[in-house]
Specification:
Radius of gyration: 28 Å
Number of domains: 3
Number of helices: 2
CATH class of the largest domain: Mainly Beta
Number of strands: 61
Strand content: over 45%
Strand order of the largest sheet: 52-58-57-60-61
CATH superfamily of the largest domain: YVTN repeat-like/Quinoprotein amine dehydrogenase
CATH architecture of the largest domain: 7 Propeller
CATH topology of the largest domain: Methylamine Dehydrogenase, Chain H
Largest sheet: 5 strands, mixed
Shape: elongated
């Protein structure tokens, strides 16, 4: 560019990029498509931060050298200045409230300029050297980070300051901050840290995300794409931009259960969660939607492992001490049968096709094979070593048995015939991915912490971990592997590329984990605190912050994965300002999974003049769940057309629905009848 840039902002409506030149005292304007310079605007002394109001196309520039803010009309290039009593540095513009926030490190405060920065209202005093700042246009909160101190503040619309927020991931001093208004998450990067700090916008709890495996990184800036949830981290020490999946995994709640919970399983068909409490001989049943406890099932002895057969709505528990297999009927959550086998049962697994149950006894080194109704023992087969964990590949009818003491993994057929045996260092738990027919075996050994990937009878790959895995769980819906560690963290690894996507702090070692592919929740039992940590895997289903709309109610468009009443309650009483003439998918052939398509909407304005309005594009999947909601603001005259992008994730019949409202507020007015079309997606 020929100069050292100070700050950067983008108007997403006009695809224009604004960059400040502190040494040349200019604002340089680029075309976002071509990169060509469109204009140079002279500003005052040492411009640094810059922000844009995309609705009015006003640009705000912080002039560090003369204590002022320049307000520039992006169309006419005319400007005026607002004087401050201290040097400004960074800017954040809240599109929802039309308020500009300005940090002043020298004065240790944040200036607040409402009404498009026409006048000042009393500033907010914050901690030492407030630096970067970002705003959430939905919640109206503004987040200020302090580079010299390891904390940040949240400021609400009434200028109330939150308690000081700290966290391990802020060590080294936060350097930049960005907000994803769709998920209400705040992301920060700190000097010389390999982690992104993801903060819940409601609870202000922080979660670490590893973005670089190499030490010595120097993250300088972070940005988020609100449509995709992808994060971009600029590393000045390596001249690199890291691209990170920001569809974060967070601990959404922690439930108190019985004494010493050691096992958990999920029935995705009924959305019930079962927790085995070893010390009080009970199994707690939890509603997976509300996270509330439904009932408690009493047993004769201590349960140590659970398994579920959703097809028959059956739950199985093995107990230690007396050695028994208990069958629970899932409709009423009552004990149906108790089969006494073995003496020290430690784990079990179910073939999800045949319903056959496999239980292992550590003291007697025995594998028990039991039918689905638990009426008898079909076989009791000796094992060569004391077993630790068991897993079943239902598709290929393989049984995997790990022995931590013998450092090996045995592969057996469904009738118990040994097919092979391989040496593994300290195997602890087994999880099977039915999408790839691979078994994942955790290793507790800290000298070589890893998860071993087994394909039938061979070691196919090894996923390196920062610490030994005590337990594993797989979410087949998202293709994520969860591994619990003794330091109170859970690692989230993509099965597609083996890359670590997140590290979640749950505060204690998990004894067992289970994933619900229907709700994308993962449950980790914590024996020492008698609780269950619920990890929520947030799938991005809502997007479209494209204009300065009040989007408080827009977040309610999705409710439990299905359309909220607010999306359809006004459909039958429109003002008919607009006519939706057609909906098309931009392809000549049948849409296919994994390909991006444009949803093309042709609209006629019956009034014949421009008026601000919002298109609501909704895609409903084959199972009735909403897979996309796109809000697109416009000011279109007659016969306008809009585009919305969509990537189908599974084959089947989809319904594309379109509505037009005047805004997305608590009292929206419909401007058209709804329209929809059916789309068949191929594999």
């Amino acid at each position: 560019m020929g100069f050292i840039p100070g700050g950067l902002a983008v108007n997403s409506n006009t695809n224009t990029v604004y960059v400040t030149d502190p040494l040349g005292n200019e604002l340089v304007i680029f075309d976002g498509s071509t990169g060509h310079v469109l204009a140079d605007i002279a500003v005052k002394s040492r411009p640094h931060g810059v922000a844009v109001d995309p609705a009015t196309n006003r640009i705000f520039v912080a002039n560090v050298g003369n204590r002022s803010i320049s307000v520039i009309d992006g169309f006419t290039k005319q400007s005026y200045r607002v004087a401050l009593d201290a040097d400004p540095r960074d800017l954040a513009f809240d599109e929802g409230t039309k308020t500009l926030y300005v940090t002043s490190p020298a004065a240790n405060k944040v200036f607040v300029l409402p009404n498009n920065a026409v006048y000042l209202i009393p500033s907010v005093a914050v901690g030492t050297f407030p630096d970067a700042i970002a705003a959430n246009p939905i919640t109206g909160k503004v987040y200020v980070v302090h580079r010299l101190e390891n904390f940040f503040y949240a400021i609400d619309g009434d200028r109330n300051l939150s308690p000081k927020v700290t966290g391990e991931c802020l060590r080294g001093g936060p350097k930049d901050v960005t907000v994803d208004p769709v998920t209400n998450r705040v992301y920060m990067v700190s000097s010389y840290s390999r982690y992104i700090c993801a903060v819940d916008g409601v609870t202000h709890t922080a979660t670490e995300f590893l973005f670089s495996k190499e030490a010595g990184t120097g993250p300088f800036a972070i940005a988020v794409n609100v449509k995709t949830g992808v994060l971009y981290v600029a590393d000045e020490s390596r001249d690199t931009v890291f691209i990170v999946d920001g569809n974060a995994h967070v601990v959404s709640t922690r439930l108190a259960v019985g004494a010493n919970p050691v096992a958990v399983t999920v029935n995705p068909a009924t959305n019930k969660v079962y927790v085995a409490n070893k010390a009080d001989n009970t199994i707690h049943v939890i509603n997976g939607t509300t996270n509330g406890r439904i009932s408690s099932i009493s047993l004769d002895s201590s349960p140590v492992a659970l398994a579920v057969f959703p097809a028959a709505n059956r739950i199985y528990a093995v107990t230690t001490g007396v050695g028994s297999l208990t069958l629970i009927e899932g409709e009423s959550d009552t004990v149906v049968r108790r089969l006494e086998i073995g003496s020290d049962l430690v784990d079990l697994a179910v073939n999800q096709i045949t319903g056959q149950v496999y239980a292992i006894d550590r003291a007697d080194s025995t594998l028990f094979i039991v039918p689905s109704d638990a009426s008898q023992t079909l076989a009791a087969l000796p094992l060569s070593a004391a077993p630790t964990a068991i897993g079943v590949d239902s598709a290929r009818h393989l049984v995997y048995i790990a022995s931590e003491t013998a450092n090996n993994l045995t592969v057996m057929s469904e009738d118990g015939a040994v097919l092979s045996s391989m040496s593994l260092s300290s195997p602890t738990d087994i999880a099977v991915d039915y999408a790839t027919y691979s078994a994942y075996v955790g290793s507790r050994l800290n000298t070589k912490p890893s998860v071993n990937v087994i394909d039938e009878s061979r070691l196919k790959d090894t996923i390196s971990l920062g610490r030994g895995a005590t337990d594993l769980a797989i979410n087949p819906s998202s293709g994520m592997l969860y591994s619990a560690h003794s330091n109170g963290f859970v690692s989230v690894t993509s099965l597609a590329d083996g890359e670590l996507r997140a590290r979640i702090q749950i505060g204690a070692t998990a004894a067992d984990m289970a994933a619900n592919p229907t709700s994308n929740k993962v449950y980790a039992v914590l024996p020492n605190s008698n609780s269950v940590a619920i990890i929520e895997e947030r799938v991005r289903q809502f997007r479209g912050i494209q204009e300065s709309l009040n989007l408080q109610d827009a977040r309610q468009v999705l409710q439990n994965g299905k359309p909220a009443d607010s999306l359809s309650r006004l459909e039958g009483h429109p003002e008919r300002r607009f006519e939706i003439r057609s909906i098309n998918i931009g392809t000549t052939g049948q849409p296919a999974v994994g390909q991006e398509y444009n949803i093309e909407i042709s609209v006629k304005d019956n009034a014949g003049s421009s008026v601000a309005h919002v298109y609501i594009v909704q895609v409903v999947g084959p199972e009735g769940d909403t897979v996309l909601v796109d809000l697109i603001s416009a000011n279109t005259a007659a016969y306008g057309a809009i585009l919305s992008s969509w990537v189908p994730q599974m084959p089947g019949s989809y319904t594309v629905k379109v509505l037009i409202w005047d805004t997305v507020t608590r009292t929206p007015t419909p401007l058209s009848l709804g329209a929809e079309m059916q789309v068949q997606v191929a594999t």
